[in-house]
Queue: 2 jobs
Job 1
Amino acid sequence: MTTTVGRGTPLLTADDVHLSFGETTALRGASLHVYAGEVLALMGPSGSGKSTLLHCLAGILTPGSGSIRYGDRDLARMSDTERSTLRRGAFGFVFQFGQLVPELTCLENVALPLRLAGAGRREAQRRAATWLDRLEVADLAGKRPGQVSGGQGQRVAVARALVTEPAVIFADEPTGALDSLNGELVMKLFIAAARDTGAAVVLVTHEPRVAAYSDREAVVRDGRVREQEPAR
Ligand SMILES: Nc1ncnc2c1ncn2[C@@H]1O[C@H](COP(=O)(O)OP(=O)(O)OP(=O)(O)O)[C@@H](O)[C@H]1O
């Protein structure tokens, strides 16, 4: 499945999205545009709906009403198989918890999305090793996630998200467990992905220092979004 999106056309669009968890309304009319080639920071108070919006954009949660479109396709109208093909092929994820497979080594974890996309073992591991090296965790290749620190695991997770060169990278507090140097390294790799492959990077952060690397900010408050106009 390919969706061709011209420059200046949003790659992803949330339109008037509402979503409740039982009695709790997390999103109440959230609208947002995400463009190819940009790093977009989602900011806002705790509990305002940032992670929920990110999960909706990624097709992990389905809005109660409103729509999420990837190009001109409504995610809710896709079959489960189409949505998971999209998630596996076009999307990369860096989430805070439970992202690495504990039974696999760090190298195998990073190679996994390539293997799922059909790459041979040797080629997948060669490319995975390149990304571990870029994240400066090449020495952890043979270790399992349980044997590395939280910050090291987070960098392995970033390598795994970037290895397939996805069209959209979703990241929830991707620098949360990192010191400032490693946080900077991760942000520079996100910016490189946006500039080199035209990826859109959507990241949730509380840190102004991290948001300063973004091209644009959107503030989520009480389940609604105020987004900065794109500069083009
Ligand atoms: N699985 C869930 N079940 C019930 N309520 C939830 C669930 N996930 C989120 N919520 C509620 O929805 C609202 C929005 O949560 P969300 O995690 O999107 O906020 P956030 O802006 O990402 O917060 P934080 O910055 O603290 O991570 C909150 O009131 C939260 O308690």
Job 2
Amino acid sequence: MKIFVINSGSSSIKYQLIQMPEEQVICSGMVDRIGLDESRIDYRAFLPKGNIVRSETKVINSHSEGLRLVAEYLTDPEIGVISDPKQVEAVGHRVVHGGEKFASTQLISSAVKAKIKELFPLAPLHNPANFLGIEVAEEIFSEAKQIAVFDTAFHQTQPPVAFRMAIPNEFYEKHGIRAYGFHGTSHKYVSECAMDHLGSRSLKLISIHLGNGCSMAAIQNGKSIDTSMGMGPMNGLIMGTRAGDIDQAVIFYLVNQLGYSLDEVNNLLNKKSGMLGLTGFSDMRDIQKHLQEGDSRAQLAYDLYAYRIKKYIGAFTACMNGLDGVIFTGGVGENDRLTRKLVCENMDYLGIQMDLTKNENLGRGIQEIQNSDSKVKLLVIPTNEELEIAKQCFGLLKIDL
Ligand SMILES: Nc1ncnc2c1ncn2[C@@H]1O[C@H](COP(=O)(O)OP(=O)(O)O)[C@@H](O)[C@H]1O
Ligand SMILES: CC(=O)OP(=O)(O)O
Ligand SMILES: [Mg+2]
């Protein structure tokens, strides 16, 4: 069965065509910088006759245009991998916010779409783009089953003590104000990999997903029991452009003393803060360059970023009353050795001791980077949200057949 996976972000669409259950990636790529001057499409096909790689820079005004272009690549007589969109049997969509309604993967109906739309205000950077991806895919892959895999679903096992907030009960009961948690597809995928790798499911794990958005999850016996993100994907860790945890007094000060509107506060905390606010750059590779040139702001930003992660490791270890393994994943977690080093420094009280040489010289696949005295396993595990989405879709359709 061919499953097309779409991870539709605010300015990009990541995609993969995967043959299931073989888990064979037929093609993958990305449409980036949608709506900006120079958009870019990357396409990589893995064919028996050899791999084909194409990149094109052109104006792509909308997600709809971007996905249509991807469909043209997929069906191109020379470099394509299918002859007709009808050969795609299912389209799996990453949907960031599923609220309390969706604890599992869903076949998309008009009711599911209405709920995704209702949740726009809670994930304004993500759900509208996810929704658009669904509408366009319904047109292009009109005969395929459309399936939503929610970032929030994996966290629905959290107990009330982790997800409730200390505000009057009616705000939860009538309005669903609570913590939900995100990046669930990634946390689930890497924690399953870790449990397979370590040969046990009775483990206390902390998964640290560090991409553009960053979050951590406490995972006990394979179930998420707490996470650093909340009602929306804003709080917790310091991220590329998001501040993460912030004192509520700051918001009142911005509004009452500095004259900010609430939209301006939202924009400031979501899009202009985090590493961007501290250094002028949101990408760790740029910040590293400045760090090497002796930029003290870059040093402080790195220190703050790692310190916040340490705090959550301490908190989650206390909540689980123990810790067997820490997983680093996401673009930063997988590639940025300095972040991993700063996070694990001076953590021997909690049983965390890194092998600095292993941390510097990573191989491919799952890597252990603790030293021989460490009680806690330190793992670097490449995430694969697309494969996890394909697995979830395949599982759902198998039940349905
Ligand atoms: N070699 C690298 N060294 C340090 N950081 C990196 C490297 N490669 C990627 N990154 C970081 O990973 C981030 C992207 O992570 P990714 O998980 O792909 O993000 P997302 O899926 O949230 O868009 C980049 O913004 C950059 O900060
Ligand atoms: C939920 C979230 O923050 O997603 P991303 O990291 O893709 O922005
Ligand atoms: Mg991501």
